[in-house]
Amino acid sequence: MVRQRLLPARFGVSHQIEGLFHHSHSFGLDFLPGKIAFYGEKSQSSIKYITKQMQQERKSMETFLEKAKASSAIAATLDGRTKSRVLTAMAERLEQATESILRANALDMKAAEENDLGSALKDRLYLDEKRVAAMAESLRQIAALREPVGRVLEGWRNEADLRIEKVSVPIGVIGVIYESRPNVTADVGALCFKSGNVAILKGGKEAEHSNRAIAEVLQSVLAEQGLPREIISLLPDSSREGVATLIRQDRYVDLIVPRGGEALIRYVAENATVPVVKHDKGLCHTYIHAEADPEMAATIAINAKCDRPGVCNAMETLLVDRAIAPEMLPRLYDLFKAAGTQLRADERALEFIEAALASEEDWDTEYLANILAVKVVDGIEEAIAHIRRHGSGHSEAIVTENYSAAERFLDEVDAACVYVNASTRFTDGGAFGFGAEVGISTNKLHARGPMGIDELTTYKYKIYGKGQIR
């Protein structure tokens, strides 16, 4: 048959298209890169139907984005006292709504069980009273942070006697695409609000009920305070087409922060017209130096891998100096075995422990599970070279009592966060004293590492004159 017409494959119409396809033997379609091709006897009438649906959804999305953009002018002018008061009210309301939030989360957890999601993902998804209370406490911590907007970063007078001030200001409308962690909805919404921004949130589909329950709590407080609900809102079209639309709306959206899988982040980076700050994968290493304290090294290694294996700041590869491997590896093997960790080791490490033989792919894998790659290295130079080749620029650690080795590692390892004698698990906005984070940026421009309220601001210059001309 001859194809009749090509339409853009976006604006969330895939479910209508599939319905037409399954209910008509005389209508067909092909999915092409960015297009939908219709053919068959009823193609013209079907095109009209789909076109109408696309126009309606386009209008709905544009209306939503227009409201978000308009709300950013209001959010940007709120004073610090007002923002802190609203955030405190949000924290209280979250605690009051614990029961309804947990009911919503139970629906997500039931679906996770039915879909046989992995244990690490289910741990990220799960909420209980303690975790809801932690969300509320995070909002209180954010409320108590100093005001990030309106700070004079620098000030000087030029040769013309103009007084010039470099002042922090909100970015504007920030879209955040994130994984299946419901607490991110509250954390990111609060951080954007505190920094005078509008937040458009797109969480993982696995947490849809939980995210909606949390967002409704935050929006209800905004409305009660006489503020637009659109200051913190979920993306109305949560489909892939909705995300594809959002990341191209540079007329309305000022920044996109994608968190999650490598494929998602690559897609956003390659297709967005909106500026992107990436929360890329966390392929974190811990290097146990020849002069490490064995007890400290064991404690740090177990914490870095086993505390929460499914998060981005968990260790994925352990590098052990050849000089300390005979003592260190058997000790670590017993500890990891007790913790249920699956080990994948290189040939030199297999001389001391029982494990699966690591492949080249293992050195580049973010497991997000209780799996660990183990490699024996010939000194700090090889350890640094391995990290340069395989690291993601997230978090790297060395355990050593040698000051020179520590300083060399700090200077030569190129990552957002580099540790000496501490677990990579500390790469976190809360642990850094930010209250929470929007993401952990592996970019080098604008923001790097945990993104708190300061990283959600930009700056402008205010210039005061007395009639000067040039």
From TrEMBL:
One of its GO terms (biological process) is L-proline biosynthetic process. It catalyses: L-glutamate 5-semialdehyde + phosphate + NADP(+) = L-glutamyl 5-phosphate + NADPH + H(+). One of its GO terms (cellular component) is cytoplasm. Its EC number is 1.2.1.41. Its main location: cytoplasm. InterPro entries: Ald_DH/histidinol_DH, Ald_DH_C, Ald_DH_N, Aldehyde_DH_dom, G-glutamylP_reductase_CS, Glu-5-SA_DH, GPR_dom. One of its GO terms (molecular function) is NADP binding. Pathway: Amino-acid biosynthesis; L-proline biosynthesis; L-glutamate 5-semialdehyde from L-glutamate: step 2/2. PROSITE patterns: PROA (PS01223). It is found in: Cytoplasm. Residues 48-338, 363-433 form the Aldehyde dehydrogenase domain. Keywords: Amino-acid biosynthesis, Cytoplasm, NADP, Oxidoreductase, Proline biosynthesis. Catalyzes the NADPH-dependent reduction of L-glutamate 5-phosphate into L-glutamate 5-semialdehyde and phosphate. The product spontaneously undergoes cyclization to form 1-pyrroline-5-carboxylate. HAMAP family: ProA. PANTHER family: DELTA-1-PYRROLINE-5-CARBOXYLATE SYNTHASE, GLUTAMATE SEMIALDEHYDE DEHYDROGENASE. This is Gamma-glutamyl phosphate reductase. It comes from Nitratifractor salsuginis. The lineage of its organism: Bacteria, Pseudomonadati, Campylobacterota, Epsilonproteobacteria, Campylobacterales.
